[in-house]
């Protein structure tokens, strides 16, 4: 360290903004650490007097407000060889008279200029000379998201409904954790942190008109307000917005109980609108340094009521609150384009409030590619073309959990894709293990914090959110040096970077070619069943995965059919991917082993990283062998064409591959029993792949017995075929099909009527559309019909009264046209399976004249009165059956559950 006793004088405007003061503080500390005496200017500097200050001097100023900076610019003393700094941009300049100038385009620009100069002082161990450097962020919003949410529902509250209390969220009150987190964010030049909640207002504000809405005690409210105010003020000092995210329309439990309302409201009511307006106004007035993120989808029928609710309730409350707040910048309002098309909402809202943003998921709820395309790319481009700033949301990382991920080049290309392919200008980043914040899933004597464990995850995304277009070779050198410093040598840094880069290709490639969904319905590291690989239609695959979130390529069945017919392949093939994934996994394991000799620091962290590389290799091997088995089984299927005693040797070869895959899975289970508490952070019923039940099947050890049973069943059936014995499933595939029993109910809506479901009957009260084919289970049930025109154009509420707990059979048309109601999906709506019925019980259970076929779903309701209000789009109500009715899901046209699917081989 330099031992100079030279002094440096700092000049700046008095009464500077908090973030400018913070930047000056960091600059002062950097100078003092290098042995400088730091003096403060006694009087404001001008063009005429600054030379009279002896020695080295630094001036820090917002060029929009600082008279001195403006004088230096006007007289060409301060010149910019890049664009003049605007907004968060800054410029560092060595100017005549021995002065270094930090010129910021705003208070945040000044902050970032101070941080940049402080960093250079730390690296050089002195105040550099001859500086002429300008920089600015390429993305307007850059920051992480953390959740005031839990994975277990607290009845009678519903999904997402968690009052903010010390027992639910102890980390929220941990100021030391917040200091560390905010320090990381400012180091990475983040300017926003997103806090996700279902309905936070009832824990942060108290309304005179609605005292019953408060969900915490008076003492808890005071503590919450004190804590949240401290968080927003500390964040503001670092140039960071705190943005509070909430769902619509969610209301507090005591408020709902007093007014006899449901917790989740599908459309606005005068009382809910008034409550929300007053809550938002009180919140904005109390916390002027906080923004809001609005989810109009899921509970609210946003396509119908989105414009009304956003403008007349949310913005109205915001504007009312701002009347009483003296803010320098209007807080950001972000519209989450989740389960809603936001264009009409934004167009109507812009004249009322200019600082609007839109947000959409980058790769769904996984990380799959840096070349998103198709429908999803079009959605982003459309949002990016609005007069707002568009943000990509790197959401739940369901295919990366629970392992470490730090492939900088993959992440850099993702941010370039966000900019160029998706036309985005902001980043919203989930932690790798979102639902268990602040803890990592590793088994350790003391739980690891994600902040430290996943430091490279945060560092890489935010580095490329600031500037994605950095030179790749320079970046490789940067990360080698960064990792080398962390682990003790450049040799270690290079090998560990190689391991990160290689392993970072494995999960994205595997999921996008073989997965069921890019959503959090699937935990990829837990593997997949053979049925999910060879008969994905049975498991409701999400086409966006391969149509938008993957490069062009072929699914397993398509690949096998082309192979057998001699057709040429297009894009990625399954064999390409397993070859690539195997190569990447081997390279990662070799690289991390090579690093071992050179690691002299943070050995424990290195060992955990090495264990992850071994686990990823076992996972890849399990997939590779299962995919090879799937290719053999599908080849058998398309070759024998129902003559199941032929070419059994293909199944024998598949059994060998399946056994090898199971061996790898056992290795993975043995390893992860020592290293991980669980495989995914969202352990809820929404987790359905590979096994239904996220809480029961959250670790490899829970899934292993099912995979062992799968192999045992497969071997048994193959042996039967080889011996000429017809498997039981082929002798008697199904029991006789009988009609469902009826449960009594009363229809209370005058605009609807009852009818008997059978061939030839009309299903709507208007028009003459009639049934031409009906599943045996439905024939003779009592349905409810209504106006197709009204339900298609506006939506329609049907009131019924159930005498006992029952299931209501709802028919959805197999068409994506706007006139038809769409099935709620777990990829877009966390509440989609709250009443069961997520998966159809009868695929194509009804056929109508000249209309699309109809899938039948069964939704559970308790006894009593219910309003069936599903939103805009035509649908059918085809009967009410007892809740304990035995249901055998099937495809009425025998495409997804017949013997030709070969699912009987694994069962």
UniProtKB/TrEMBL annotation:
**Its domain of life?**
Bacteria
The cross-references to SUPFAM superfamilies, in alphabetical order and at most eight, read: (Trans)glycosidases, beta-N-acetylhexosaminidase-like domain
**Which protein is depicted?**
Glycosyl hydrolase family 20
Q: Which UniProt keywords apply?
A: Hydrolase
């Amino acid at each position: 360290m330099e031992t100079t006793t030279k002094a440096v004088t700092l000049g700046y405007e008095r009464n500077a903004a908090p973030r400018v003061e913070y930047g000056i503080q960091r600059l002062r500390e950097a100078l003092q650490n290098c042995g400088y005496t730091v003096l403060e200017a006694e009087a404001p500097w001008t063009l005429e007097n600054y030379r009279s200050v002896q020695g080295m001097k630094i001036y820090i100023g917002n060029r929009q407000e600082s008279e001195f900076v403006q004088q230096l610019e006007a007289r060409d003393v301060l010149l910019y060889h890049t664009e003049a700094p605007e907004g968060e941009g800054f410029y560092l300049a060595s100017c005549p008279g021995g002065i270094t100038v930090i010129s910021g385009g705003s208070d945040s620009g000044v902050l970032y200029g101070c941080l940049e100069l402080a960093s250079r002082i730390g690296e050089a161990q002195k105040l550099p000379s001859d500086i002429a450097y300008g920089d600015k962020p390429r993305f307007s919003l850059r920051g992480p998201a953390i959740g005031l949410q839990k994975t277990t529902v607290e009845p009678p509250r519903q999904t997402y409904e968690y009052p903010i209390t010390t027992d639910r969220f102890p980390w929220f009150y941990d100021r030391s954790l917040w200091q560390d987190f905010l320090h990381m964010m400012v180091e990475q030049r983040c300017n926003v942190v997103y806090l996700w909640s279902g309905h936070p207002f009832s824990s942060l504000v108290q309304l005179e008109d609605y005292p019953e809405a408060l969900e915490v005690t008076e003492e808890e409210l005071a503590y919450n307000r004190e804590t949240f105010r401290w968080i927003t003020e500390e964040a503001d000092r670092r140039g960071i917005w705190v943005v509070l995210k909430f769902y619509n329309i969610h209301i507090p439990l005591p408020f709902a109980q007093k007014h006899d309302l449901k917790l989740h409201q599908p459309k606005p009511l005068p009382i809910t609108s008034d409550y929300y307006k007053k809550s938002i106004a009180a919140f904005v007035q109390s916390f002027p340094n906080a923004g809001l993120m609005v989810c109009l989808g899921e509970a609210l029928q946003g396509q119908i009521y989105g414009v009304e609710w956003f403008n007349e309730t949310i913005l109205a409350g915001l504007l009312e609150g701002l009347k009483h707040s003296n803010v320098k910048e209007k807080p950001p309002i972000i519209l989450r384009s989740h389960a809603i098309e936001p264009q009409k909402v934004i167009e109507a809202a812009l004249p009322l409030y200019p600082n609007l943003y839109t947000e959409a998921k980058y790769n769904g709820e996984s990380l799959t590619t840096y070349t998103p395309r198709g429908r999803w790319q079009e959605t982003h481009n459309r949002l990016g073309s609005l007069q707002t700033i568009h943000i990509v949301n790197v959401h739940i990382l369901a295919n990366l959990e629970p392992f470490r991920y730090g492939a900088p080049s993959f992440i850099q290309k993702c941010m370039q894709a966000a900019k160029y392919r998706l036309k985005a200008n902001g980043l919203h980043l989930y932690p790798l293990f979102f639902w268990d914040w602040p803890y990592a899933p590793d088994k350790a004597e003391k739980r690891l914090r994600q902040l430290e464990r996943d430091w490279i995850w945060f560092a890489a995304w935010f580095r490329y959110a600031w500037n994605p277009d950095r030179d790749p070779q320079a970046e490789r050198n940067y990360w080698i040096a960064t990792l080398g410093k962390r682990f003790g040598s450049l040799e270690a840094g290079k090998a560990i970077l190689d391991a990160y880069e290689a392993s970072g290709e494995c999960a994205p490639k595997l999921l996008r070619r073989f997965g069921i969904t890019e959503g959090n319905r699937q935990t990829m590291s837990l593997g997949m069943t053979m049925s999910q690989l060879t008969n994905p239609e049975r498991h409701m695959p999400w086409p966006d995965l391969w149509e938008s979130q993957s490069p062009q390529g072929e699914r397993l069945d398509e690949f096998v059919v082309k192979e057998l017919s001699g057709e040429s392949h297009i894009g990625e093939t399954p064999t390409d991917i397993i070859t690539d994934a195997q190569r990447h996994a081997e390279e990662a394991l070799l690289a991390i082993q090579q690093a071992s000799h050179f690691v002299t620091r943070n050995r424990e962290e290195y060992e955990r990283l090495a264990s992850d590389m071994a686990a990823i290799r076992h996972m890849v091997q399990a997939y590779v062998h299962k995919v090879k088995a799937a290719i053999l089984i599908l080849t058998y299927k398309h070759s024998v064409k129902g003559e199941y005693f032929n070419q059994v040797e293909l199944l024998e070869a598949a059994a060998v591959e399946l056994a090898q895959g199971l061996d790898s899975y056992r290795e993975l289970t043995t390893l992860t029993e020592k290293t991980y508490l669980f495989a995914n952070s969202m352990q809820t019923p929404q987790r359905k792949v590979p096994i239904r039940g996220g809480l029961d099947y959250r670790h490899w050890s829970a899934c292993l017995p099912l995979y062992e049973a799968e192999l045992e069943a497969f071997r048994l059936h193959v042996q039967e075929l080889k011996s000429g014995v017809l498997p039981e499933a082929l002798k008697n595939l199904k029991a006789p099909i009988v009609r469902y029993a009826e449960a009594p109910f009363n229809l209370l809506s005058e605009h609807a009527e009852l009818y008997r479901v059978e061939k030839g009957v009309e299903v709507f009260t208007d028009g003459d559309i009639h049934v031409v084919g009906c599943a045996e289970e439905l024939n003779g049930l009592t349905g409810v019909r209504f106006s197709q025109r009204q339900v298609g154009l506006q939506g329609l509420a049907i009131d019924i009264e159930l005498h006992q707990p029952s299931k209501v059979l709802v028919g959805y048309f197999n068409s994506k046209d706007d006139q038809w109601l769409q099935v709620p999906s777990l990829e877009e709506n966390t509440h989609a399976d709250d009443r069961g019925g997520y998966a159809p019980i009868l695929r194509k259970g009804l056929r109508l004249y000249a209309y699309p076929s109809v899938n039948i779903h069964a939704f559970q309701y308790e006894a009593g009165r219910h309003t069936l209000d599903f939103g805009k789009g035509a649908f059918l109500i085809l009967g009410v059956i007892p809740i304990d009715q035995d249901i055998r899901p099937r495809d009425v046209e025998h495409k997804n559950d017949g013997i030709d699917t070969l699912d009987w081989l694994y069962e």
